[in-house]
């Protein structure tokens, strides 16, 4: 009885992992350029 339960559990685990359907590669899209911030960052040290 234990081997049957182990086999069923193994099948459930294997059936639940992975993506269903054929594999595919994401479409190649050109990266968007990000403009730097216009105003400079003013970082001041904190007194601790």
Provide tags for this entry:
mainly alpha; Lipoprotein; single chain; signal; 0% strand
Question: How are helices and strands ordered from N to C?
Answer: H
Largest pleated sheet? none
Query: Given the helix and strand composition, which structural class is it?
Result: mainly alpha
Q: Strand percentage, roughly?
A: under 5%
Assembly level? single chain
Show unreliable segments: none
**Outline type:** elongated
Q: Termini, distance in Å? A: 66 Å
- What value does the average pLDDT take? 76
The total strand number stands at 0
Radius of gyration: 27 Å
The number of distinct helices, counting runs of at least 4 residues, comes to 1
Helix content: 25-40%
How would you characterize this protein structure?
It contains 1 helix and no strands. The chain has one helix at 2-16. It is elongated and about 70 Å long. It has 48 residues and is mostly helical. Helices cover 31% and strands 0% of the residues.
């Amino acid at each position: 009885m234990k081997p049957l339960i182990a086999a069923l559990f193994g099948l459930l685990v294997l059936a639940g992992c992975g993506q269903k359907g054929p594999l595919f590669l994401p479409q190649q899209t050109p990266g968007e350029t990000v403009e730097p911030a216009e105003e400079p960052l003013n970082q001041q040290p904190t007194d601790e």
